[in-house]
Amino acid sequence: MSDLLKSFTGLKLMIVDDEKNIREMVKLLFEAEGYQVIEAEDGQEALRLYEISHPNVILMDVAMPVMDGLTACEKIRQSALGKNIPILMVTSMSDIKSIEKGFAAGATDYVTKPLNWIVLKQRILHLVKISIAERQVATLQHLEQIHNYTHNQEKNENLLIGSERTFLEIKELVEKAALTDAPVLITGETGTGKNVLAKAIHHSSEGKRKAFVSINCAALPEGLIDAELFGSEKGAYTNSVTTRKGVFELADKGTLFLDEIGEMPISLQTKLLSVLEEKQVRRLGGENSRNIDVRVIAATNANPEEAIELGKLRIDLFYRLSVIRIKIPPLRERREDIPKLCDYFIKKFAPNRQLILPNEEFELLKNYYWPGNVRELRNIIERCIILQPGPEIHPSELLDINSTKKNTLPNDIKVIDNRILTLEDVERQHILKTFYNLGKNQTHTAQALNISLTTLKRKLKEYKIT
Question: How would DSSP label each residue in 253-307?
């Protein structure tokens, strides 16, 4: 193993394949290299195991019973814990359409059967190195954030990078929220910085020296979220061998950040509302309630009013959480902030390098749709710094903006002059225009439209778009 891998303990590979002999060969091969190998015989088992084992890389077969690899890959990518896990897809077909389906589902790379073990080891090693490097960067960034958040309010305001037009109202709301312990609801698309804003509120408040605990409601299985929120007593459920505090108790006297609150099961929303009103929690399997003093900040990337109409969010919980409501605009609505953000990220990731971002690059970046918002911009700048060694960096090359522009709309997407468009017509045109403008990338399109990938695929199927 390389020095990088030797310095990292607990290296984990998950092999997902319904063929037992394949799993055994992979296990034999990679355990000899020092990996810990986790086996799953179908996609459904993989979904259960990856949240428990946190593998560094997943080797996923496409064709499997119960749940195929493409579906499992999509579900992993939709959860917070699985967004950055490298997934190497294994397919018996090497045609372009099969490969495109794999990448559309979220695969990082692919190999074909029959497996070439030498090639497989090289691909896995490459993906593991990327995974470790990303974890190390994330750790350093986390430590840096902790350092930044312990500074005064003036320092915290620097976290809200943008024009006065963009953040004047938001900064005023942050200041007001910091003076109270009232619940806060933050709305905004994925990648706009809801977590950062929640931390800014916490570290601007009197309780800044107390705990800030964050939990993603969409990342936990329905059967475990109750215990994670409210705690559990020993023997409360299968494999519950110890008494555990929930996040409410862990955040006592501090702040609890509930991300993706709209993904919480309705039954638990009722219990959460009771906890917020009574300021007491009772552990799963417990008999006694415990007093808690927690400031709750919730966030969602969905429209709360629409979530209420769809029955995904209780209206009384919405009113309880949105005493103070802050909406973060998407990056495409504040394109004038892109140069300032780029400058910030360049200084952040390469403080000792004199890097230049040409003016023509800014124009290209301003014309991009940014479905991943500030997070996508940050990742692109970081990748440029790593991959482009010269004095100039060109993010547009990694975004593939030029090829995206080549995608043109089909002839049938046009305004119908002779009649008023129905709502169905408008929806179809908007979905397809976004789909083609984003280079037919289904994941980015779903994010931009703020709908699930499943919904987008169903719509495209209705429109006979494959």
Answer: TSEEEEETGGGS-HHHHHHHHHHHHH-EEE-BT-SSEEE---EEEEEESS-HHHH
Gap between the Cα atoms of 48 and 403, Å rounded: 38
- Write the CA distances from 466 to 105, 298, 405, 422, 462, integer angstroms: 14, 37, 20, 24, 10
Angstrom CA distances, 143 to 137, 139, 140, 207, 347, stand at 10, 6, 5, 19, 17
Encoded amino acid at 401, one letter = I
- Say whether 324 sits in a helix, a strand or coil: strand
Q: Is the pTM of this model over 0.90?
A: no
Tokens of 56: 């560094």
3-class DSSP state for residue 106? coil
Rounded to whole angstroms, the Cα distance separating 339 from 256 reads: 33
Q: How many CB atoms lie within 10 A of CB 163?
A: 11
Which parts of the chain sit beneath pLDDT 70?
A: 1-10, 79-83, 93-96, 130-160, 164, 166, 221-223, 236-241, 400-422, 466
Note the pLDDT of residue 368: 86
Distance of CA 186 to the CA centre of its chain: 16
User: Does 114 sit behind a cis peptide bond, omega within 30 degrees of 0 on the bond before it?
Assistant: yes
Distances in Å between the alpha carbon of 45 and those of 64, 68, 306, 355? 11, 11, 33, 46
Nearest to 249 by CA among 281, 295, 201: 281
Please say whether the beta carbons of 260 and 272 come within 8 A: no
At 184, list the tokens.
């806060």
Q: Which helix (H) or strand (E) holds 122?
A: helix 117-149
Render pLDDT for 368-383 as a digit per residue (tens, 0 to 9). 888 888 988 998 898 8
Query: What is the tally of helices (H) and strands (E) in the chain?
Result: 22, 12
Tokens of 292: 């808690």
Residues in the chain: 466
**pLDDT reported for residue 3:** 42
CA 22 to each of CA 99, 113, 121, 212, 267: distance values in angstroms, whole numbers, following the listed order? 21, 11, 14, 44, 42
Secondary structure (H, E, C), 64-99: CCCCCHHHHHHHHHHCHHHCCCCEEEEECCCCHHHH
Radius of gyration, CA atoms only, the chain: 24
Task: Write out the two tokens for 26.
Answer: 């992979």
Neighbour count for residue 8 (Cβ, 10 Å): 17
Bridge partners (DSSP) of residue 256 are 213, 296
Confidence (pLDDT) at 111: 83
> Could you give the angle at the alpha carbon of 106 between the alpha carbons of 104 and 109, nearest 5°?
100
Beta-bridge partner residues of 356: 392
